[in-house]
Each structure stands twice: as C-alpha cells, then as structure tokens.
Amino acid sequence: MSDTRRRVKVYTLNEDRQWDDRGTGHVSSTFVERLKGISLLVRAESDGSLLLESKISPNTAYQKQQDTLIVWSEADNYDLALSFQEKAGCDEIWEKICQVQGKDPALDITQDPIDESEEERFEEIPETSHLVELPPCELSRLEEIADLVTSVLSSPIRREKLALALMSEGYIKKLLGLFRVCEDLDNREGLHHLYEIVRGVLFLNKAALFEVMFSDDSIMDVVGCLEYDPALVQPKRHREFLTKTAKFKEVIPITDSELRQKIHQTYRVQYIQDIILPTPSVFEENFLSTLTSFIFFNKVEIVSMLQEDEKFLTEVFAQLTDEATEDSKRRELVNFVKEFCAFSQTLQPQNRDAFFKTLANLGILPALEIVMGMDDLQVRAAATDIFSYLVEFSPSMVREFVMQEPQQTDDDVLLINVVIKQMICDSDPELGGAVQLMGLLRTLIDPENMLASTNKTEKTEFLSFFYKYCMHVLTAPLLANTAHDKISKDNFQTAQLLALILELLTFCVEHHTYHIKTYIMNKDLLRRVLVLMNSKHTFLALCALRFMRRIIGLKDEYYNRYIIKGNLFEPVINALLDNGTRYNLLNSAIIELFEFIKVEDVKSLIAHIVDNFYKALESIEYVQTFKGLKGRYEQEKDRQSQRLNRYRRDARSLDEDEELWFNDDDDDDEGEAVEKSRMEDDFSDSYGKYMEAKKVSVTAGAANGANGANNNGKAAVIPPASPSVTPNNSSTSSVKTVALPATPVVKTALVGLVDYPDDEDEEEEEEEEEQSPRKRPRLSS
Prior knowledge:
Elements: E1 7-13, E2 19-32, E3 37-44, E4 50-55, E5 62-65, E6 69-75, E7 78-84, H1 87-101, H2 116-122, H3 142-151, H4 156-168, H5 171-185, H6 188-203, H7 207-213, H8 219-225, H9 238-245, H10 257-276, H11 289-308, H12 310-321, H13 327-344, H14 349-362, H15 364-371, H16 377-393, H17 395-404, H18 415-424, H19 432-444, H20 458-469, H21 471-481, H22 492-512, H23 514-523, H24 525-530, H25 538-553, H26 557-565, H27 570-579, H28 585-599, H29 603-617, H30 625-645, H31 656-669, H32 675-699, H33 701-710, H34 760-769
Antiparallel strand pairs: 1-2, 1-7, 2-3, 3-4, 5-6, 6-7
Helix pairs in contact: 3-6, 5-6, 10-11, 12-13, 13-16, 16-17, 16-19, 17-20, 18-19, 19-22, 22-23, 22-25, 25-28, 27-28, 28-30, 29-30, 31-32
C-alpha cells in the first residue's frame, strides 16, 4: 500500500463546522462481510490501524471537489472527507463509488439527500429524467432566471438538477457576460436580478460551480454582481477595495505562479464569505458549508506549498534579522509571518507540529527577540501575535530557547525580559497588550506544562533561570513605586500595571513554593506589596490583599514567622479600620482573611493578632470573627497551662517498675511503724532505678500503653487511710488523678505512662530542671 496514488488524509467536520484531521493513510475499496457491501477502508501509514471503515451506501450523496477531494455525510451532522495526494487516486476511488451507486463518473456528485416527502414525490421519476430547463441567457429573461434560481433552493433534488444544468451549458460564463452589458448600460433592474441569481448560485453549495465562479477570469465579475443588492440605495464598491485598497505585497517574490494564484483566490473568496454575503439565517446556515470547505482546503494547500519552499522562508528570516533591512520592509515581513501563522491554525495537530518546528529551525525566536524590541508599535503588536502562536503551540520550545540565551547575551536583551519590558511599557491606557503578554508569561512559568525527563527536570532548571535573570525585571516597577513605605505614583495606568504584576506574583506563590518563598524573604516583598493597601484604587488594594491571602493560605510556618517578625498585619488592619463601617468588597476580603486564620486555627498568627491588635478590633461586633480569634487564643492559653500543670499534679500514674518496688516494700514491711523511715532511707536508690526505667518508657510510649492495659487487673495494697481514687474523664487517656496522703499511696490499677505526642520535648526539659511532684513522695514528720 505504498502507492502514493492511494495516499489520503481523513477529515471529519466538527460542531464548529471546522475540519478535523483524523490521520494519514492509504485507501482501498473492499467487500466487508460484516457490513455486507463494498466499503472504503483507510489504514494509517504509521501503524496500519484502521482510520476509516465506511460502507458505500446506494443512497449516500458523494461529492468530488477540486479534483483531489471526496466529501460525504454518513449521518446527521457527521461529514467526512478524503483528501488525496494525487488526482489519479481520487479518480480511481470516485469511479468505484459511482460503480457501486450506478452513476456516471463524469458527474461531481452522485445524488443529494432528500427528505421523505420529496422522496415520495420523485420516486416515479427515472434517473435519466431531464435537467431543469433554463431560459435563454438574455437580458429580457433575467427576471425569469432569478425566479427559477430562488425557487429551487428549498428542494435538494431541484438544486442538484439546476447545478447540473448550469454546468452543462456553460451558463455561468454567459450570465457574467450579461453583467458586463448591464453595467455598461447602467441597467439597475437587470443588475438587481443578477445579484439574486449569483447569490442563489452560491447557495446551491456546489464545488464544481465554485471552481468556475472563483477562477481568475470570473471572480471579479461575481463580486461585481454582488455589489448590486436591491436593498441598498447605492451599490457597494467591493471591486474597488479588492483592486486598489487591498494590495498584495510580496515581501519576497513568489516564483510559483500556482501558489500566487491560490493566495489571491483564497483572499477574495474569504472576502466574499465574510464581507459581501449576508450572515445566513438558521435555515440557510448549511447552504455555504462547501464554501467554508473550499477556503479551508485552500489555506492548507497554501501553507504546505510555502513550507516546502525552503529558499523562500530562509530568505524571509534572513531579511527579518538583518540589521540593514529598512523598517518598512521589516514591518511587511513581520506581518507576512503573522498571516502565515494565522493560516497554520487551519492545520491539524501533527501538521501544525511540523509547521512550527520548521519555523523554529529557521530562527523564528531570535527574529522575534529583535522585532519585539523595536519602537514601531505595529511591528511590536504583530510580533506579540506571533509569539502568542508559538507559546500556545509549545511553551517548552520557547523555554528551551531562552535558557540558552545567558551564555550568549546580557540580561537586558533576553527574550523573556524583552516581553516583560514590553508589558511594563505598554502605552495603551487600557493595557490591552500588557494583559495579553501577562497571559503568555503565566503560561511560560506554569509548572503544569513543564516536562520532566530522566536526565533533567525542566521545572527546576527554568524556574532557577527565571528567578535569577528575569524576576528582578518583573518586580522593578513594584519596588520602585513603594520605596520608603509610600506609593510614589498612584494614577490609574500605574495601578493597572501593578495589579497585573501582582497577579503574576500571586500565581508564583501558588505554584512555585521554594523559589518565590526565597525571593519574598530576601526582598522583603510582602512588606512592599502591602504598601499598596493605601492606594486610592480599591482594585489595587484588593490585589495586594489577595497576594497576602495566598501566602497565609499555604499555612507555612516560615511565612508565618516572617509576617509576625515584620508586623505585616498592621497595614491590613489599618485598611480595615480606615474603611470604617462601609460594607464593601475590601471589608469582606479582609474579614475573610481573618476568618480563614480562625477556622484553620493558625496558632502563631492568632496569638500575634490577639496580643498586638485585639484592642483595636474588639469593637467590631457585626461579625464574630475577632471574638472567635480571642476565644481560640484563650483556649490555647488554657491548654498550654494544663500541659504545664500535668507534671505538677498531686497524683500520677506509676509505671510497672515503680509499682513492683512499692509492692516488694509493702510485702516486707506491711503494718510496721518503721515504713516512713525506710522510705526516707531507700528513696534515693529506688528513685534512681525508676528514672532508668522512665527513660526506656519515654522511648517506647506505645509499648508502655500496652503494658498498662495488660496490667489493669493487678491489685495493689492500699493502706486503710488512703483516699478514694478519682478517675479522669478524658476519653483519650487512662491516666487517673489521685490526692496524695501523708503516707505513700499506690493506685488500684497499674497503668503505663501515656505518651503525649506534643509533650516529649517538654517532658525531657522538665525532667532535667526538677523532679515532678508526681514523682516525689511527700514524707510526714
């Protein structure tokens, strides 16, 4: 199947009426048992997989267009097309389709779909029925011709018969000849009829008619007919625009005459569709589907022909980057490349990949680096559009290029820095270009579209590059405008620019973690950003607040300590108090910030806010946020107090070694009066034993808990005078509290020491500082 005659691309029409490329392969017509008929099969040239399997149905309307296209519909809103590499292959498959349907291969369409009622009306008409009979092509019969063309548009089968009649008699050429006569005679009535006729012929939606109407010697007469809309008092001057105003500029001479003719034709047909023809109604929207396809395949062909002409594109980029090129010439070259990239959007993904790789190999990015830094606004705008096509296609390709630049040039002319400076220096009061460039920068620094390979990590390398060479350029306007803790310029355009920069920085906080954290700490960036809380432009104050909110939302203690150390809540609280009782977005956003801190129980920030600002905030009672912060603060203080007192209670749980010591002691000396003095003598030795066991207990808290649980049933001797044991109500611990008597007391059940996860460090510190009262028996005199 390596025969190039059978090499095709498979297209399907999507919901937006655009053709989607399904792949390239080789077509054959074969009987398929499962489908019970001759079918078209297309197998992918890459892996042999089946791209298309379509039975040639006797009732399906197939159309042959432009000698290398076959188009048909398989179901409602599901159109297919085969684009052949060679005309011979298209003719071969077309003959097979016509053979299956019993049609004449000389026709460009086998039949048209018709609705059920029409099918019933025409089922008795034989296939050899006569074509629509056209009136003689004379001035006196123009009204009759116009009525005929208009009347057939509602009937698919009559549209087909009229199209065949127009083709078979060379009628289009005769009509266009009459147009020239009417225009010479200034026959307005005849010109109005010709407008209706030509418009109706376009709505027949036949590619064969388009080939005739859009040929070089006919298309301007077609445009002329469409100037005389009866609804207009004066005709439009479309031909004057196409011939005099719209100039075809060959930035580099195109030697291929076929390519030049194709470019002219595509521009004029696009003009007819977009400018001249009225927007079709809901009932007419499919009338021009073939015209859309005609333009689409023309664009694909133009891009392919230009891409294959290596000398042409090489010369384009050579002149674009040549310092000797005049500014006017460079402007034309940039506009050409922009249009070239716009045409490439009609290509399918794999074709677009090849297209942009070709541009990259030819040096598109170094060329953009030069033209984006030029003073000419038109050139910069066109270069920005080209850059957006490249970033949208492959951010990695752009990143790879810019990371190689520091070895060859200084920071000021790096491509990304050129883009940042163009964003900063946008002269548009609404900053339209800056907004577009900001979106491109965000795409470039987004880790989500960065690739990781076995040898290197693009994310790490590029972000390190960006923060080393580019971040200072991005933040320069912000730092310059907030020097000495006050805003130096607070006009609307500056505020808009700073808002864009803050939006990018906020994006960095969310996605870059380590790099942006280091940068914020080193530059004290948050303090400078919060100066903007004093701006008269509320949207800018909200951007600054959003930046801080994203930082706090990370719940990172490094950030929290930085905020506390710098007292960075002060400008936020001042803004809240200055806002007064106004219920607006700024008020709500600030309260939401403190509500987040309360709900997430960020302890360090809660303590800082209550300790330093609660007196200023306690009067705000229309929300419970600040009282809630105070409540959280008090709860934490109580918890800390209880934690400290836990080791100073009058009773404690005893571990197994200590209880064994007490039990042994009780067995030997139970009931003797010398118990008190014996304890005094032996206390230091036995307590040493206990502390050794305690160290083991701390390192294996879970094991101790198990030991306590296993020994809960072990009885201990209790002196008659000992008070009752009071159980602790805690659901997470089996520790019990006992009031110590004058004599040593042993509890009724042996429980292992409870290991509080938060308390390990504090326990070790307190063991070193002092003996806990729980571990020190009180001796009576």
